[in-house]
Specification:
- By secondary structure, this protein is of the alpha/beta class.
- The chain has 15 helices and 24 strands.
- Helix 3 packs across helix 7.
- The longest helix has 21 residues.
- The protein starts with 17 loop residues before the first helix and ends in a 15-residue tail after the last strand.
- The structure holds nicotinamide-adenine-dinucleotide.
- The site of nicotinamide-adenine-dinucleotide has 30 residues, from helix 8 and helix 9.
- GO terms for molecular function: aldehyde dehydrogenase (NAD+) activity.
């Protein structure tokens, strides 16, 4: 499956496998030489060289020239200039540009989805699904471009009217995580562009190819429409590039997706210069299964939530709270499903489990499992790397189910997000107990209750229910649609992106009081006559 067929073409000096070169060529990405990792209307890059590595095979997919500090600075300046022009383009016209981007993305959905699989490691159907999410948010933003409405507010003064007007905001810095190398940018780009802003994208250092492929598609559309390319700039780079972008006073809004540790730092830095920030940070999501749940729905959903994307979604199911009455059956059926998982090439149609994204993630996984063992947990299945030789060059680990000794949410087993397929299970007797466990962790992204009882549903969704941003019923923790605002509470950062009212963060609100009368009374009846 992972045989590296060396290509003999003289241009393929990196001797990419045909598996990799087919994907790169389908998107017009060069298969030899260095790739330019900066776009601000022109492609360039004179910073450090960064490697893109396939997590399934270890193959180096590309060498990318990242942004030097000077180039980052110039890119931000160009994006500011582009914004000044773009903010005057009527919103429905901006929507038309988004519609064209949507068409291009949809036409390349399969190829781009394959690139996500190749570079990030998620299985192909999830890679394609991620591109579909970008297509969906473009559709949404096209509609939005005709509906970003302000309000007319009643004034207390005769002959006066107050308007709340959404205006374009400026430059939006988008810093994204490795696990959604396309969709997270899509959520931000679509709303930001509809709102009349310019964006500067700093993707994860380990997924530069996805960002270059996406930026090429968008650049093509902008250039065809005579819009400055710096409306959608790209700066590849490491955390130093991220830090410089975050501290720039020329960036009005920083939309950051990543870990809690980095997000805390980013939040503080942006607040210290009075910038706007959206934080989409780590999740630590629980599913609760009640005795009246339809187990034929709940078990596959927990399986997908915990094993899908090899446990590397912010919404992955990491905690499973089972009612005592159903616990034995759920655990037995879940283990059967886990045993059926065959790890392999994420590009192969029948693979359900791809690799972890990096070598260092294997260490994180093994450390978490070691701690489980040493603290007296029962490991029901999994608990180590795969030993098959064919998988050795990749970062493959066994999906794991454990029953920790204590269900105490303050224990680090329960309170930290391990970004790997480890599912911890605890057994409860009363729903209130399970809700308390669900809530007593620092994070608050996604949560899911399995029940057919309306009374449970009311409790779960109400004031004493789940305190997460996503509160599902008979739907797993993982896999949100774009229509609702997406995001989490508490240490997940309180950010909201995508649907709902999220667009309101990408604009500058102007409260405009207009006097149409021949008198100029003061508000609240204040008299200041000389
Ligand atoms: P990460 O925090 O290591 O990196 C995220 C981005 O921040 C990268 O682009 C990185 O280069 C940059 N960065 C690193 N240090 C920086 C600094 N000091 N200043 C500015 N930028 C810096 O995260 P990751 O490992 O790529 O992604 C996994 C994490 O992202 C998980 O915790 C996951 O839950 C979270 N995530 C959250 C959501 C969500 O919507 N809540 C979505 C996807 C991923």
């Amino acid at each position: 499956m992972f045989t590296r067929t060396k290509t003999s073409g003289k241009h393929l000096s990196r001797a990419l496998s045909t598996r990799a070169s087919t994907v790169l060529q389908s998107l017009g990405l060069p298969t030899s030489g260095e790739l330019a990792g900066v776009y601000d209307g022109q492609w360039k890059g004179s910073g450090e060289v960064m490697e893109s590595r396939c997590p399934a095979t270890g193959e180096v997919l590309a060498n990318v020239r990242t942004a030097s500090p000077q180039e980052l600075h110039e890119t931000i300046e160009k994006s500011r200039a582009a914004y000044r022009q773009f903010r005057n383009v009527p919103a429905p016209r901006r929507g038309e540009i988004l519609r064209q981007i949507r068409e291009e993305l949809a036409a390349k959905r399969d190829n781009l989805g394959a690139l996500v699989s190749l570079e990030m490691g998620k299985i192909k159907t999830e890679g394609v699904g991620e591109v579909q999410e970008f297509v969906d948010i473009c559709d949404y933003a096209v509609g939005l471009s005709r509906m970003m409405n302000g309000r007319v507010v009643a004034s207390e003064r005769p002959g006066h009217v107050i308007y709340e007007v959404p205006n374009p905001l400026g430059v939006v810095g988008v810093l994204s995580a490795f696990n959604f190398p396309v969709a997270v940018y899509g959520w931000n780009l679509a709303l930001s562009l509809a709102a009349g802003n310019a964006t500067v994208w700093k993707p994860s250092p380990t997924t530069p190819l996805c960002s270059i492929a996406v930026s090429k598609i968008i650049a093509g559309v902008l250039e065809r429409n005579n819009i400055p390319g710096a409306v959608a700039s790209l700066v590849t780079g490491d955390k130093e590039t991220g830090k410089d972008l975050v501290k720039s006073r020329d960036v009005e809004l920083v939309s950051f997706t990543g870990s809690e540790a980095v997000g805390r730092n980013v939040g503080e830095k942006v607040a210290s210069r009075f910038g706007k920030v959206i934080l989409e940070l780590g999740g630590n999501n629980a599913s609760i299964v009640m005795p009246d749940a339809d187990l034929s729905l709940a078990i596959p959903a927990v399986f997908f939530g915990a094993v899908g994307t090899a446990g590397q979604r912010c919404t992955s199911t990491r905690r499973l709270y089972l009612h005592r009455k159903v616990a034995p059956e759920v655990l037995e059926r879940l283990q059967k499903l886990y045993k059926s998982v065959i790890p392999g090439d994420p590009l192969a149609a029948d693979t359900l489990l791809g690799p972890l994204h990096t070598r260092s993630a294997i260490k994180t996984y093994l450390t978490a499992v070691d701690y489980l063992r040493s603290s007296g947990a029962e490991i029901l299945t999994g608990g180590s790397k795969y030993s098959e030789e064919a998988l050795a060059p990749g970062n493959f680990v066994q999906p794991t189910i454990a029953i920790p000794k204590s269900p105490e949410p303050k224990d680090r087993i329960w309170s930290t997000e391990t970004f790997a397929p480890v599912l911890n299970v605890a057994i409860f007797d009363e729903l209130e107990q399970a809700i308390e466990w669900n809530n007593n962790v620092p994070q608050g992204l996604s949560s899911s209750l399995w029940t057919r009882d309306l009374r449970h549903l009311g409790k779960w969704m109400g004031p004493s229910g789940s305190d997460a941003g996503i509160v599902n019923v008979n739907v797993g923790t993982s896999g949100a649609e774009i229509g609702a605002a997406f995001g989490g509470n508490k240490s997940t950062g309180w950010g909201r992106e995508s649907g709902g009212d999220s667009w309101k963060q990408y604009v500058r609100w102007s409260a405009c009081t207009v006097n149409y009368s021949d008198a100029a009374p003061l508000a609240q009846g204040v008299n200041f006559a000389a």
